UniProtKB/TrEMBL annotation:
Pfam families: FMN_red (PF03358). Residues 7-146 form the NADPH-dependent FMN reductase-like domain. InterPro entries: Flavoprotein-like_sf (IPR029039), FMN_Rdtase-like_dom (IPR005025). Signal peptide: none annotated. It comes from Streptomyces nitrosporeus. One of its GO terms (molecular function) is oxidoreductase activity. This is NADPH-dependent oxidoreductase.
């Protein structure tokens, strides 16, 4: 099985990123369950606005889309900005919206049978709201979500501490990340063996 993490930090590489760090930790947990994968920082690519598979003019989304389609699991990692997922995350969801019209020979969207999970970081309230927003978008385009399909860390509201600056991973975050990984991999394996029926 393969996993892809789309990191939706606003910062292009090589800037440090708490979202990227949490994505690395989730991917390490996936690997413990035999799932290999890749982490892509979306801000490093020219992903054009729109809801098409290819917006032309050097749009980088088609290459990222191929990585999504080749994966069994998609992890979306986003920071919280003003109580919402990042604008980069919103763009990813908008581009995934094009998949609703891309179907297999039985009329199912290509993303049916794929499993998604979410990682959220921030130093303000809103992890549940952000994960709910991203969950709904992922579900709308065909991904399945396992129980506990989110891990997150939020610092004390109105303070400047970043996840990447912590001395150690809080046990609550580590435990939640482990649960996300085991449940997500389990569901992905079930769907690989027993695909959804055509409707």
């Amino acid at each position: 099985m393969r996993a892809l993490a789309l990191v939706c930090t606003l910062n292009a590489s090589p800037a440090r990123s708490s979202s990227h760090l949490l994505a690395e930790q989730v991917m390490a947990e996936f690997e413990r369950h035999g799932v290999r994968g890749e982490i892509v920082r979306v801000a490093d690519h020219d992903v054009r606005p729109g809801v098409g598979v290819d917006m032309g003019g050097g749009d980088a989304w088609p290459a990222l889309r191929e990585k999504v389609l080749a994966s069994d699991i998609l992890l979306v990692a986003t920071p919280i900005w003003l109580g919402h997922p990042s604008s980069v995350c919103q763009r990813v969801l908008e581009r995934l919206d094009a998949e609703l019209s891309e179907t297999d020979d039985q009329g199912r969207p290509h993303l049916y049978g794929k499993v998604a999970a979410v990682a959220v970081v921030g130093n303000e309230d809103g992890a549940h709201k952000v994960s709910a927003d991203v969950f709904q978008g992922l579900d709308d385009v065909g991904f399945s979500l396992a129980p506990g399909a989110v891990t997150y860390w939020v610092g004390e509201a109105m303070h400047g501490t970043d996840y990447q600056d912590l001395d150690e991973v809080p046990e609550a975050v580590a435990s939640t990340t482990r649960t996300l990984a085991v449940n997500t991999v389990h569901l992905a394996r079930l769907l690989a063996d027993h695909p959804y029926p055509a409707s």
